């Protein structure tokens, strides 16, 4: 039934063989998420990339997040080079499906990536990119209400006091 939902039906989501766990301090990115796209992100620091498995493919993923131990919140994240903006370094840019009253730079964020939505892509226009991101957000929201993804909101990593990554396990 989950894969028949409108947003999900336009995707070919796939579960990861094992969840990927990452953590770090929320850092300022390029300022494009909120200002250019209207979709704020809680960027992980560059050194958080070491927490990814070696074979991890770039793309758009979904999962769960906590901020300073509060949550879990549904999230969709870009892991990669952001071809639309020709980044010269890889980034991890989670967007949490929650409305926060203020920025939370410097807060501790933990994410558990549970599934893949699509590959990275360069779009014809910013409007096309924004439309695609909104579809990513809708798809992630729908998928995370379903098994096997919804149960992973209880992943102990999200609530552990340790900030060390468990990565894929």
From TrEMBL:
<keyword id="KW-0285">Flavoprotein</keyword>
<comment type="pathway">
    <text>Cofactor biosynthesis; FMN biosynthesis; FMN from riboflavin (ATP route): step 1/1.</text>
</comment>
<dbReference type="Pfam" id="PF01687">
    <property type="entry name" value="Flavokinase"/>
</dbReference>
<dbReference type="GO" id="GO:0009231">
    <property type="term" value="P:riboflavin biosynthetic process"/>
</dbReference>
<keyword id="KW-0808">Transferase</keyword>
<feature type="domain" description="Riboflavin kinase">
    <location>
        <begin position="15"/>
        <end position="145"/>
    </location>
</feature>
<dbReference type="InterPro" id="IPR023465">
    <property type="entry name" value="Riboflavin_kinase_dom_sf"/>
</dbReference>
<dbReference type="GO" id="GO:0009398">
    <property type="term" value="P:FMN biosynthetic process"/>
</dbReference>
<keyword id="KW-0547">Nucleotide-binding</keyword>
<protein>
    <recommendedName>
        <fullName>riboflavin kinase</fullName>
        <ecNumber>2.7.1.26</ecNumber>
    </recommendedName>
</protein>
<keyword id="KW-0067">ATP-binding</keyword>
<keyword id="KW-0288">FMN</keyword>
<dbReference type="GO" id="GO:0005524">
    <property type="term" value="F:ATP binding"/>
</dbReference>
<dbReference type="InterPro" id="IPR015865">
    <property type="entry name" value="Riboflavin_kinase_bac/euk"/>
</dbReference>
<dbReference type="GO" id="GO:0008531">
    <property type="term" value="F:riboflavin kinase activity"/>
</dbReference>
<dbReference type="InterPro" id="IPR023468">
    <property type="entry name" value="Riboflavin_kinase"/>
</dbReference>
């Amino acid at each position: 039934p989950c894969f028949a939902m409108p947003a999900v039906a336009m995707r070919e989501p796939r579960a990861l063989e094992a969840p990927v766990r990452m953590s770090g301090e929320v850092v300022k990115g390029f300022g494009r998420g909120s200002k250019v796209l209207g979709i704020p992100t809680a960027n992980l620091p560059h050194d958080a990339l070491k927490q990814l498995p070696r074979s991890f493919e770039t793309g758009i993923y979904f999962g769960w997040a906590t901020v300073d131990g509060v949550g879990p919140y549904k999230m969709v994240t870009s892991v990669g080079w952001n071809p639309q903006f020709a980044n010269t370094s890889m980034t991890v840019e989670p967007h949490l499906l929650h409305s926060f009253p203020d920025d939370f730079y410097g807060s501790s964020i933990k994410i558990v990536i549970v599934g893949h939505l699509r590959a990275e892509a360069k779009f014809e226009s910013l409007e096309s990119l924004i439309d695609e991101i909104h579809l990513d957000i809708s798809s992630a929201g729908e998928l995370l209400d379903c098994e096997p993804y919804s149960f992973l909101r209880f992943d102990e990593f999200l609530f552990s006091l340790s900030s060390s990554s468990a990565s894929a396990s």
